[in-house]
């Protein structure tokens, strides 16, 4: 079953998690309903892509209103396709929400067990990963393109939760909308790196389609890595939505040849204890 449900023209949520875990807000935006122009039409949420800064700000304000999660409670990252994870706390709130300069440097994932912090990352084809260990109230978000995926950022998040005493068996993961295997063609160099981490896996997540060209299922690759890290199969759900196939709904770096906007993934606990 598709874990992402459309709530509005501008965003989808992980409906089952939000029902199961009261106070949780988790999902991803679409490209619809913003004020950006041209290549960034219309709901571009990435500051780093040469869009007008004020348009990105207005788009972010809109999403903050829709989610009822104010911008001064967001955290954002300067994503570099590596595996740097940052544990964030209340004092970090607001960093990277309204200015790229203030975002967390060299960071491709966040985690926290505190309320009133929205973990945000931006995407246009790469795989958004959402983590929750409900008993420990720990949540996480990661950005996994091919580099982050083969460097096993997903496994690193499981290990980070582990330092807090969380067992992989208590972690649930959702693999979000991203580029599908039909749209994602890579060369030998990438497939070699995939082979290195999947020696003991029979069903490889790639297929040779022509000389030196492979179609790669990045979502399935992340799933295989998470299984190897000890997450139970039934606690991993995977979206079927493709950012490249669905031109109406999503920005796609590949399809739009690099000139495009960014969607925003989000996960956070609303501040409820004081109410
Ligand atoms: Zn596709």
TrEMBL record:
Its cofactor is Zn(2+). It comes from the Bacteria. Keywords: Hydrolase, Metal-binding, Transferase, Zinc. It catalyses: inosine + phosphate = alpha-D-ribose 1-phosphate + hypoxanthine; adenosine + phosphate = alpha-D-ribose 1-phosphate + adenine; S-methyl-5'-thioadenosine + phosphate = 5-(methylsulfanyl)-alpha-D-ribose 1-phosphate + adenine; adenosine + H2O + H(+) = inosine + NH4(+). The keyword Transferase applies. CDD domains: YfiH. It holds the Pfam family Cu-oxidase_4. The keyword RNA-binding does not apply. Belongs to the purine nucleoside phosphorylase YfiH/LACC1 family. Purine nucleoside enzyme that catalyzes the phosphorolysis of adenosine and inosine nucleosides, yielding D-ribose 1-phosphate and the respective free bases, adenine and hypoxanthine. Also catalyzes the phosphorolysis of S-methyl-5'-thioadenosine into adenine and S-methyl-5-thio-alpha-D-ribose 1-phosphate. Also has adenosine deaminase activity. This is Purine nucleoside phosphorylase.
């Amino acid at each position: 079953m598709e874990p992402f449900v459309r709530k509005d023209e501008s965003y989808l949520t992980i409906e089952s998690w939000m029902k199961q875990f009261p106070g949780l807000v988790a999902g991803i935006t679409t490209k619809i309903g913003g004020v950006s122009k041209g290549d960034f039409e219309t709901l571009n949420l990435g500051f780093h892509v040469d869009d007008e800064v004020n348009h990105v700000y207005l788009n972010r304000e809109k999403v903050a209103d829709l989610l009822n999660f104010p911008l001064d409670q967001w955290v954002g990252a300067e994503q570099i396709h590596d595996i740097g994870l940052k544990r964030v706390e209340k004092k970090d709130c607001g960093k990277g929400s309204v200015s790229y300069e203030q975002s967390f440097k060299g960071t491709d994932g966040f985690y926290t067990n505190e309320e009133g912090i929205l973990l945000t990352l931006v995407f246009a084809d790469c795989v958004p990963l959402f983590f929750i260990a409900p008993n420990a109230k720990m949540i996480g978000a990661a950005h996994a393109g091919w580099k982050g995926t083969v460097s096993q950022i997903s496994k690193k998040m499981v290990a980070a939760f582990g330092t807090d005493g969380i067992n992989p068996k208590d972690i649930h993961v959702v693999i979000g909308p991203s580029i599908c295997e039909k749209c994602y063609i890579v060369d030998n160099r990438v497939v070699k790196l995939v082979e290195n981490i999947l020696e003991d896996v029979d069903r490889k997540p790639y297929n040779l389609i022509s000389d030196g060209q492979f179609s790669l299922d990045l979502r399935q690759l992340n799933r295989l890595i998470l299984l190897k890290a000890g997450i139970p199969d039934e606690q991993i759900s995977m979206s079927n939505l493709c950012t490249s196939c669905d031109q109406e709904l999503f920005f796609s770096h590949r399809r739009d040849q690099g000139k495009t906007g960014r969607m925003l993934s989000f996960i956070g606990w609303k501040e409820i204890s004081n109410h």
